[in-house]
Amino acid sequence: MEPKQRHGCVTAWLILMIIVNSFTAIIYLFASDFIIENTPTPPSENMMLILGTIGIGNLTFSVYLLKWKKWAFWGFAGTSILTFTLNISNGLGVGSSALGLLGVVIIYAILQIKKENTTAWSNLE
């Protein structure tokens, strides 16, 4: 059986997701003062902890997508829906909140890129 392969763009995107989600979690958990000082309506400390935890979850899901786990895509979709709901409940507009859902669409589309006539999505376990 041949080892699974993914297009370089898919690998690059997953690595970018790992970097961005790491940075996001660190900011929410350890640099919340920066967000509070630079946001017109800053989130509460509890919300910062929740968003930091979601960032850790997304980091984990990104790593497991790199390891070919389909459940990680659904986990990422779930955290995106949760974040959308939290943003709406905290008064962020629907348009701004929906931008986070666009990430799920982008990941799904990128996983459709083929290498040797096989998509990364079809290689996920």
Task: Please describe the topology of this protein.
Blueprint: H1 8-30, H2 32-37, H3 45-66, H4 70-89, H5 94-110, E1 114-115, E2 118-119, H6 120-123
Helix pairs in contact: 1-3, 3-4, 4-5
Can you offer a commentary on this structure?
- The chain has 125 residues and is mainly alpha-helical.
- It has one domain (8-120).
- Helix content is 74%, strand content 3%.
- The protein is built from six helices and two strands.
- It has helices at 8-30, 32-37, 45-66, 70-89, 94-110, 120-123, and strands spanning 114-115, 118-119.
- It has a two-stranded antiparallel sheet with strand order 1-2.
- Helix 3 packs antiparallel against helix 4 (70-89) and helix 4 (70-89) runs antiparallel to helix 5 (94-110).
- It is elongated and about 55 Å long.
- The chain starts with 7 loop residues before the first helix and ends with a helix.
- The mean pLDDT is 92.
| Separation, N- and C-terminal Cα atoms | 15 Å
Q: What does the radius of gyration come to?
A: 16 Å
Q: What is the molecular shape? A: elongated
Helix-and-strand structural type: mainly alpha
Uncertain segments are: none
Mean pLDDT: 92
Descriptive key words:
74% helix; single chain; 3% strand; 125 residues; two-stranded antiparallel ribbon; mainly alpha
Short description:
By secondary structure, this protein is mainly α.
